[in-house]
Amino acid sequence: MLKRWYLKSLKPDYRVEDLFKIDWAEFKSKGIKFVFLDIDNTLAEHGSRQADKYAKEAVDLIKSFDLQICILSNALSDRIADYAKSLDVDYMSQANKPGIKKIMQKISDLNLRADQTLMIGDQIFTDIWAGKRAGCVTIMVKQRFANEAIQIRFKRKLEQFLFNRYEKG
Ligand SMILES: [Mg+2]
């Protein structure tokens, strides 16, 4: 029972090394129209206010497939607004992931179905869980930077436990 729950709720649909390993053309051809993107350790170093080269190139790549982007972060709006501006993309801060209220609102405002959206992030217990709950296609990327707060390191251990279980089937 527990196993079924975590397989369904927490297993990302795809796992990739980074944003450049995602087959954007393939997702586009499957009807994906919109991308929710986590910031910290997905696009940026934790706490960044400005996009770096990696983030700019990744966002340009996504935009080149005519996919819309919304940065989705649990962090406070002040920093996220600055960061999103440096990439010229939409954003939602204080998103309260794994809560899905803001995600569902956005999907409904856009007149899309959840399965036409991607949720991309580096953490199971916020990004992936939220995406699964909302019905998005979920992609987990490897964290960009290793220097993380203690509570995140703890979650990494739980994530590793889950992946070991997934691999056993
Ligand atoms: Mg993150």
Give the topology.
Layout: H1 2-10, E1 14-16, H2 24-29, E2 34-37, H3 53-64, E3 68-72, H4 77-87, E4 90-92, H5 101-109, E5 117-121, H6 124-134, E6 137-141, H7 150-168
Parallel strand pairs: 1-6, 2-3, 2-5, 3-4, 5-6
The chain binds magnesium ion.
Question: Would you give an account of this structure?
Answer:
The protein is of the alpha/beta class and 169 residues long. The chain has one domain (2-168): HAD superfamily/HAD-like (Rossmann fold), CATH 3.40.50.1000. It is 46% helix and 15% strand. It contains seven helices and six strands. It has helices spanning 2-10, 24-29, 53-64, 77-87, 101-109, 124-134, 150-168; strands at residues 14-16, 34-37, 68-72, 90-92, 117-121, 137-141. Strands 1-6-5-2-3-4 form a six-stranded parallel β-sheet, sandwiched between helices. The longest helix is centred in the last third of the chain and has 19 residues, at 150-168. It starts with a helix and ends with a helix. The model has no long low-confidence stretch (mean pLDDT 91). The structure holds magnesium ion.
